[in-house]
Amino acid sequence: MAEKPFQKNQSLLPDHPEEKFSVLMRSLPGMAYHRRRDEFWTLTYASEGARRLFGDLAWEKIRSGVTCLGNMVHEESYPHVLESLERALARKEPYQLVYRVNSLLHSDRWVWDQGEGVYDEKGHLLGAEGFVTDFTAFKTMERELREEIGRLRCREDSPAPAPVIPGIIGQTPEMMAVFRLVKQAAASDAAVILYGASGTGKELLARAIHDQSPRRNGAFVPVNCGAIPENLMESEFFGYRKGAFSGADRDQPGILDKAHGGTLFLDEIGEIPLSMQTRLLRAIEGGGFSPVGSREIRHPDFRILAATNRNLEEWVRQGKMREDFFYRIHVVPLHVPSLKERKADIPLLVSHFLESLPGTPPLGTAELHRLMAHDWPGNVRELCNVIRRYSLLHSLDLPERGKAFGVRAATVLPACGTLQEQMALMEAAVIRKTLEETGFHRSEAARILGIDRRSLYTKMQRHGIGKKESHCGNFSSQNK
């Protein structure tokens, strides 16, 4: 009588338990492993499936016992993998990871890694054991599906399309709400106040309101109120006549004259001193103004748009802003979300910035994870600066909050010069470094340096440190 097939197959297996285990490991479609808990998570055991995943050369290194986690995981995925692995093991939880690996067989191979920690009788972590299998086909299907969904969305006929402003990047609900309000505000001539942190793109939105308004053919005049010294505000806003003061060798039109027929954008309006608020309010409400050194009353026609990162109602309560001035500019409030409030827009913004930097390598999954996890105190401006540094250095450098800047004297001091000259150079270097580390978030930079914002502006002007050094266009496709 012939033997049953099952008995034949069973008889082919070796009798020794260790040999049976070895045959089983060789037949697995992936790689079983054990990693020792040391500084490098050294691989102390790997089944022969590693040969099919990584190639013969890598398999020989694995067998020699010199392979660690960092050798296997692609550098773009490594920080995320290490953090996720150690976090799960610290909680004594199993882990499931998907990441890109270094393979000599394929340039873009992904794996699924599932495992758990190994602990001694006292609960101390000894290592990790798990199983790795090829996940590349699934990642390819995922990418193709995502692309197809994107194509279908582009073709989908929506009965009420979302109001998107040309040149401004954003698809989150928070930005859609801003776009709707911008379109509504553009149709009127009412004063609009944009609230938002530095670097969120308030000026771009103000310009969008102007560009879609009946005043689009007039001038858009942006003014940084915090950068104008108090003793020059009157002549800057109202202009002056020849001979009005020493150095006035010709008639000079003021900001209000330049905005005639268009839009006046007062950025950082909370920095206007009380004395100037009174005179500016009179001009805004139709009472007119006189250039310095003249009795002529001028009545310009312009629309007011303003922006601030301060709580102006609190400013009024503290007596730093006139109540009548507040109500004149606070007709349509528009709150611009910070980048951390709309992190889903980060991939779109990154893609936009990379398009403007030809030759820059794309960001990997792990790098995008880092960008999404960052706090972004400098908002879109800081993100743009980070991508520009990435374009130059080909490494993602995210500034750590509260980290000492450590400017070396040897890099900023001349070989000779007076003490005053060397101190001026040191001051300029510290200010520039602080601004760079905060993504040119001037309020944050002033706080770190222990000075007020107006003092920071004065020092920036003295040392020739301009806002243009960090201009990235925020979320606009145009540098405005």
From TrEMBL:
GO terms for biological process: regulation of DNA-templated transcription. GO terms for molecular function: ATP binding; sequence-specific DNA binding. InterPro entries: AAA+_ATPase, AAA_lid_NorR, Homeodomain-like_sf, HTH_Fis, P-loop_NTPase, PAS, PAS-like_dom_sf, PAS_fold_3. CDD domains: AAA, PAS. The keyword Iron-sulfur does not apply. Transmembrane segments: none annotated. The keyword Transcription regulation applies. It comes from the Bacteria. Keywords: ATP-binding, DNA-binding, Nucleotide-binding, Transcription, Transcription regulation. Residues 168-392 form the Sigma-54 factor interaction domain. This is PAS domain-containing protein.
